[in-house]
Design a protein that fits this description.
308 residues, globular, mainly alpha, 2 domains
């Protein structure tokens, strides 16, 4: 339906998405619920394209019931609906808030302390991806003794990175609030890109979170990201399982796959850089168009020159 409504992505990229090694490896090996969360989030985004506020808010809440991470995308949804009027914005906030209370009710009533500490306060694993990976990398290069205990020194940095992700998501949500429903898919993709760059902690199968949204944002970039992610995930699962067949993972294996994670990380950084360059070019083009003389103005200037 999204392809029919927006004309994007092209059919060939949909075929690649269906055959994506990333999806097969993550779902086949882990068998976790992340693909369900991504599916619900994609449905919530689809209902933004359809301008269906109620279902968009409800499916976003369902996605947050599976994994807490879609919460950082709430500003994008909120500003999307707020741009359509104060009433839709407030209605979205109310429906989403009540839906979240409903799906979280058992945890909030039964174990509120653990819900806030272990769910809302979850930080994943630091040191294996992105900024924290490079911190550990340079500490090793400078001959510092890096142990799991010493990574506690990075806790202030982890907090800063969380705030950066949230701030960037809010900024993107505001700057792109006037996007159409189809353009909103790009907003969600760019939010995921920011998350992937600055994530304080990361597990390889997180790469599946952004996949469908990058596909809608830019099919060529999706191909590149899929290749990079597939290389990383293959190295991860192969090392964890001591080679093929991947029957089970060994938690005692040193995380040598972290080095392979730089491949998809550099790809998402490149996507972000290209997005900024593209935005700058559009702004420059817009400024130039302001100073472009209309045909009437050019004729008037020519007549004035001839009379002189």
């Amino acid at each position: 339906r999204l392809h029919q409504k927006t004309g994007n992505p092209p059919v060939w990229s949909l075929a690649l998405f269906a055959l994506s090694p990333v999806a097969f490896m993550v779902s086949g090996f882990h068998g976790n619920v992340d693909p369900i969360m991504v599916c619900l989030l994609l449905v919530a985004t689809y209902f933004c394209v359809e301008e269906n506020l109620l279902l968009s808010a409800m499916f976003l809440a369902l996605a947050c019931a599976i994994k807490i991470i879609p919460l950082f995308l709430v500003p994008a949804f909120f500003f999307f609906w707020l741009n359509r009027g104060a009433k839709p914005g407030l209605k979205f906030a109310a429906v989403f808030g009540l839906s979240c209370l409903a799906v979280w009710s058992e945890a909030l009533i039964g174990s509120p302390f653990y819900f806030f500490r272990n769910v809302l306060g979850y930080s994943s694993y630091a040191g294996g991806w992105g900024i924290t990976y490079w911190c550990v990398f340079f500490l090793h290069a400078l001959h510092f003794n890096v142990t799991p205990q010493s990574l506690n020194r990075l806790l202030p940095l982890l907090t800063v990175l969380k705030l950066v992700v949230v701030a960037l998501a809010i900024t993107l949500a505001w700057l792109r609030r006037k996007q159409s429903g189809a353009g909103f898919l790009g907003t969600i993709a760019l939010c995921w890109i920011c998350f992937a760059i600055f994530a304080p902690g990361f597990i390889p199968y997180y790469l599946i979170w952004m996949a469908p949204f990058v596909l809608f944002y830019s099919p060529p970039w999706y191909v590149i990201l899929t290749v990079a992610s597939s290389i990383y995930l293959f190295a991860y699962y192969n090392m964890m399982s001591h080679g093929i067949p991947w029957y089970a993972s060994d938690p005692s294996v040193p995380p040598a796959w972290n080095n392979w994670g730089t491949i998809p990380w550099f790809v998402v950084v490149a996507i972000a850089i290209c997005a900024m360059i593209g935005r700058r070019r559009l702004r420059v083009k817009g400024v130039n168009s302001v100073f472009t003389r209309s045909p009437q103005t050019q004729i008037a200037l020519a007549n004035a020159a001839e009379s002189n």
